[in-house]
Amino acid sequence: VHGDGGLTRRGLLVASGALAVAALRPPAGAALGARGVRAAPAGRPDRQHAWDATLAVDEHGNRTAPRLHRLLLLDLAGPPGIADATALEDALRAVEAQQPAGPSGILLTVGWGPAWFAALGVPSPVPEPAALAGDRAPRLERFAACIHLASDFADVLARAERTVRTALGGALVLAGRRTGFTGRGLPRRLGPPAARRLAREAPLYLGFASTARRSQAREGDVTLRDGPWAGGTTMHVSVLELALERWGRLDERERVAAMFAPGVTPARARRPGPGLVLPAPDGRAGHAQAAAAARRDGRPRLLRRDFDGVQDGRAVVHFVSLQRDLEDLAATRRALVAHGPGIEPFVRARSRAAFVVPPRSRRTCPLLPGWDA
Ligand code: HEM
């Protein structure tokens, strides 16, 4: 069991007891499809990662991320079967039936890692996680799957998690759980003591928003165009540890230079807009400036859906990024190291994991014989 809020052995046993019933007996009263799965509720696009249309947009086109997040990380406890797939897909549809798509309801994406495909004896569409440029021995994780749940409301999120967990405990078991938040004032309120020195309104620990329109890939840019996973994407999930105390000892001007670029004023960094246009890096770049060197055709290659959290009492970033190919992430990391220092001296990757996010119609147990093959 990894991560914050790790499960106890007893927790797993309780969850598996619940499954034995859930898997055999489909939920009473549900409209059942051919496979013993309730009908998919209408209104969710086939691209699982198509969240943007549901997010609030400011006058500059910047989107507001959902405030509360949860990652459920799954392992395989044995060979997966149709009953596992049926139970999970039914639970995911139940979650979608409970709430509308969007931060006022629930957003979710499900990804599958190399360990899943290895268990089926088929090649993985995503590589095994590897250390990236600048890393110092991160844990390379081999989860079978990752479910990202997001909402503005804690009770909605908790209910969604409970619903998903009724489906686990057969071959698919909960191996880890990560929770977090992003949005004005939340890091200061929900973070560790070191976060209390932050600007009252900061949406992320380091004190700045990171979702300006120009600095995010568009959903279409990160969508796989053709091949067996067309309509899907890839998802990288890492835990980044922040040296918040040291960051807090920089003055405002130094923080802005490290985050954006030398010469950017704090006032300019805080002024809302579609994103700063920063000069090409020239040896001592800020983070955003260095990352922009990895753009393709002038557009960022990553769609960042990260959020802040707390692990072992320390401030961490749950860095969730979507990209067409994991090489897009590796290239961005190389640019950050090559042109930095940016925020590199304050960030250390604790772990890395990689998943393919299939289109929604194939989001559960992809390529499982008799189910999706
Ligand atoms: C540790 C926490 C991190 C924070 C607080 C952070 C913050 C930021 C901020 C403030 C921006 C400027 C864009 C804006 O104003 O919207 C930015 C841009 C960006 N960051 Fe980060 N970042 C973090 C980690 C990372 C990591 C680990 C990666 C990649 C591996 C990354 C990749 C990018 C990219 C690709 C851009 C956009 C560059 C462009 O405009 O082309 N960031 N980030």
Q: What does this protein look like?
A:
By secondary structure, this protein is an alpha+beta fold. It has eleven helices and ten strands. The chain has helices at 9-24, 82-98, 114-120, 154-165, 186-190, 219-222, 244-249, 252-259, 266-270, 287-292, 326-339, and strands at 68-76, 107-112, 139-140, 145-151, 172-181, 233-242, 303-304, 307-311, 314-323, 347-357. The strands form two sheets. Strands 3, 6, 7, 8, 9 and 10 form a six-stranded mixed beta sheet that branches. Helix 2 (82-98) packs antiparallel against helix 4. It is globular, with a radius of gyration of 20 Å. The structure holds protoporphyrin IX containing FE. Protoporphyrin IX containing FE binds at residues 204, 206, 208-212, 214-215, 240, 259, 275, 287-288, 291-292, 295, 300, 302, 317, 319, 329, 332-333, 347. Residues 204, 206, 208-212, 214-215, 240, 259, 275, 287-288, 291-292, 295, 300, 302, 317, 319, 329, 332-333, 347 line the site of protoporphyrin IX containing FE (HEM).
